[in-house]
Every structure is written in C-alpha cells, then in structure tokens.
Amino acid sequence: MSASAIRNIDRSSRDPEFGPWLAHASVLVVDDEPGMRNFLVRTLGPRCKRIEEAADTEEATRKLDQQHFDVVILDNIMPGRNGVDWLAEQRAIGFFAEAILMTAFADLETAIQALRAGAADFVLKPFRSNQIINAVARCLDRLRLQRENNVLRFELRAASDHMLLRDRLIGESEPIQRVRETIARVAPLPTTVLLTGESGTGKEVAARTLHSLSDRADKPFVPVNCAAIPPDMIESELFGHLKGAFTNAGSAREGLFMHAHGGTLFLDEIGELPLSLQSKLLRVLEDRRVRPVGAEREVPVDLRFIFATNADLAQQVQANRFRADLYFRINVLQIHLPPLKERGNDVRDLAALFMTKLSQQLGVPQVALDEAAREAMARYPWPGNVRELRNLIERTLILGRFPYEQLAYDGLPQAQARQEAESLAEMERRHILAVLREVGGNREEAARRLGVSRKTIDRKCAVWNA
What was the pLDDT predicted at 162? Predict the structure, then answer.
C-alpha cells in the first residue's frame, strides 16, 4: 500500500482508549511477508497518523534515513539478515525509535538478544490485532514518560540556574553579612524563624541557607507559598485529607506537613494565610501534630518551621487580619532581609554573577558592563530588588546592550529623577506606572519585568486608583 493511500485511510475508527499518542504516531513495519505487512497496515493504519512498510532491512534503512518514526515493528527472520542484528546495528549508529520484535520462535536466547539489541517489546507470531495495538501503545507510553522525565530534569536544572541564588546569599555588604551571621547562629537550633523584607530580597534563599546549616540538612526542605494556593484548597494541601473528605477527594493524600516530616517547612507570605487556618497552624506549632481533613486522629510531625512575609504583621494584627497569638508564636527570632538599594556594591557582584550564569543559560555572549552602567545600577533604587536586577541582566543579554532607559522614570534620567524631592513611595509609583505604560497595561508582563508578583501590581494599582 502506498504512502498516499495510507494518508487517505479513514481514521474515524481510531481507538480513543489508547489516547492521542497513538493517533499522532508514525510507525514503520519491516517484514518480508506481504500478508503480514498488509495485516499490520490495515490494523494500525486507521489508528496512527502515518504508517510505512519495508520488505527488507535495506529498504527499512533507507526509510529511516529519510524520516522519523516513533515505533518500528520488525520481523526477526528475514532473508539476508535477521531483525535483531539489524536493530543492534541501527542502535549503534543512532536509532532512537521504540522497536517491537516479531518472531515465530519463542526461545529465551532470542528474547535476550532482542532486549540487548534495544527492542522494547517482543511479540510472538501468530498474534491478534489487539495484541500488536497494545504493544504499540505501551511503547508510545514509555516514550512519552521518558520525554516528560527528560523535560522535567531539564526544567529543574534550568530553574536552579534561573534562580541562581537559591542556595547562597551573595554579597559582602555589611547588611548581608549581618544576615549571614544571624543565620549561622540560629541554624543549629530548633528555633522558629520569621524572615521579613520586601519582595525579591531573597527570603527563600535565606530559608534554604538556614536549612542547609541545620542538623536537618539531609531531610526535606518544603517551600510553600501561602498566597499561591487557593483558599479553599490550602487546608487539604497543608494538612492532607482522607478519601471522600470533600468533593473530588477520590483518594487519601498526605499533606505538605507530612511531606516535610523530619525536615524544614518554609511558609512564605504567611500574612496571606486565611484566618480560619491560622488557629489550626497555631495548634500545629504548639502540639507538633496535624489532623488531615476528614480524619479523627492526629498525626505527629517533626518539623522545623521558617516563616516569611513582606507585609507588616504587627500592623495586620492591629487591623484584625492576623491572629496576635500566632504572630507572637512565630516571631521568636526575626531576620530582616535588606532591600537591594541598601546593599552597596552587592549590586555589582550580583550583576556579574547573573551575567555569567544567564549568558550560559541563554547561549548568548556576555555584555560588558562599563562604568556608566555600573553607576546607573548603583543610583537606581531597585523597587523589585534582586529579581528586578536579574530581569534587567537577562534583558541586557537579549538586547545585546545595557538598557539605560529601563533605569529611568517617565523617560527622565535617574540622576535627574533623584534630584526631585520625591519620597521613595512616589518614585516606586512612577516607575511601576511607567513600566505599565511601556507594556500597554499588561500587568502580568509588568510584574515579570519588575520581578514582583502580579498580586503586588494589582494591590498597588488599587491603592493608586490606576
């Protein structure tokens, strides 16, 4: 059957039970028997995106050289050379498709040879149509999982490089040295720590440093952003739940408290935790026991708690938005992360680090930061702190030049803006609104450029009636 005829096959009979992967798969059938090739084409053709056939290994090699196949179905006994030897040869020169070996002789030696040659499945002739369909579906599922795992591993490495500062505090300024000294003193102790500071100052970095210097360093570190979990889900996420505890709870699930058992639980943006959960968190802190949603018994947990916030919790207590007893319970030792504008030459050190790492990550050459660029960075107040600096360096690498215009308010050079007797709050307002105008009012993009959350942009715009 020709390729054009194959493309015209009615695919209405594709089996949805095998999912979209089978429907999008390309398959090559290699067998010297026309009857077997015809059977496989009729069986798989309506279910696959593309199917080709080859009467011998030489024709199969030519087809592999011409196009990509997801799965190759290969007969073992053919004139000239057997399928196992051909498969081994193809693997050695760069053949990555999944392979299914067909054979009429079920002996252990052949099976071992097939596996060694790189066959993913082994089908004994004669077989029924559903057997070969299932074999192909298994191969495609295995291929999908392998690809997803590879992508996830890459994303994790990229995310680690993207954060850059994830496991260490960079800089030699006096404020950051004081933070390091305090962390070193408290890390070996079980004391609960509250990290405060503006968004983007490195609170999670400090939390990870605390964990790595503690006696729990080889145990889990579980970071949780309280503002990122919907209020109706956060209890089950933290405490876990039993099967049937609520709608859609089809199975029991351990919560993040249990996931962090023996290690450190880092609750970021603790000021966003709903009031209804604050009393339950207080009980966990006092009793070191959690009760999953729908459970009658409590589960003991061994945790070190680290909290973080960019809000004024004392002010929230006065406004009845945060429980006073919880505030006093978590505020045993407070470590303030200084804003970038107070860290002096750390800006240059961080910029150099970002330039080196991001140029490798993006695969582009570094951009030299001359004295004018360094002075511009030193003058700039960095309302988005380290995140904003990182974004600026990435933008520099993409543009191939240092974007001086980004360090200005409403088009005014920063030096001129600093001469105006503006409060820091007004400077921040002007800068955020300028970036919003630049991106056409897209708050998501503005938040990304500034290195802050979308929620921060929304909150400030509401205050400014913007």
Answer: 39
**Any idea which residue has 């056939």 for tokens?**
53
Average pLDDT on 363-381 reads: 89
Q: CA nearest 383: which of 443, 449, 463? A: 449
Give yes or no for a contact between 175 and 343, defined as CB atoms under 8 angstroms apart: yes
pLDDT digits (tens, 9 = 90+) for 308-328: 999 999 999 999 999 999 999
Residue 11 backbone dihedrals phi, psi, to 5 degrees: -100, 20
Residue 20 and residue 11: Cα distance in Å, rounded? 13
Tokens found for residue 464: 């400014």
**What does the alpha-carbon distance between residue 270 and residue 309 come to, in Å, rounded to a whole number?**
6
Task: Using alpha carbons, select from 35, 42, 31 the residue that is nearest to residue 5.
Answer: 42
**Cα 342 to Cα 340: distance, rounded to the nearest angstrom:** 5
Q: pLDDT for 243-270, tens place per residue?
A: 777 877 776 677 888 888 888 999 999 9
d(CA 175, CA 423): 22
What rounded mean pLDDT belongs to the chain? 82
Instruction: Give CA–CA dist 177/31, Å, rounded.
Output: 71
**DSSP β-bridge partners for residue 186:** none
Residue 420, token pair as written in the block: 């105006």
Q: Among residues 194, 223, 226, which one has the least CA distance to residue 208?
A: 223
Only one residue has tokens 């933008």, namely 395
Only one residue has tokens 């968004």, namely: 199
Give the Cα separation of 187 and 212 in Å (integer). 8
Q: 3-state secondary structure string, the chain?
A: CCHHHHHCCCCCCCCHHHHHHHHCCEEEEECCCHHHHHHHHHHHHHHCCEEEEECCHHHHHHHHHHCCCCEEEEECCCCCCCHHHHHHHHHHHCCCCEEEEEECCCCHHHHHHHHHHCCCEEEECCCCHHHHHHHHHHHHHHHHHHHHHHHHHHHHHHHHHHHCCCCCCCCCCHHHHHHHHHHHHHCCCCCCEEEECCCCCCHHHHHHHHHHCCCCCCCCEEEEEHHHCCCCCHHHHHHEECCCCCCCCCCCEECHHHHCCCCEEEEECHHHCCHHHHHHHHHHHHHCEECCECCCCCEECCCEEEEEECCCHHHHHHCCCCCHHHHHHHCCEEEECCCHHHCCCHHHHHHHHHHHHHHHHHCCCCCCCCHHHHHHHHHCCCCCHHHHHHHHHHHHHHHCCCCHHHHCECCECHHHHHHCCCCHHHHHHHHHHHHHHHCCCCHHHHHHHHCCCHHHHHHHHHHHCC
Q: Which residue type does 61 have?
A: T
19: left (phi over 0), alpha (psi -120 to 50) or beta: left
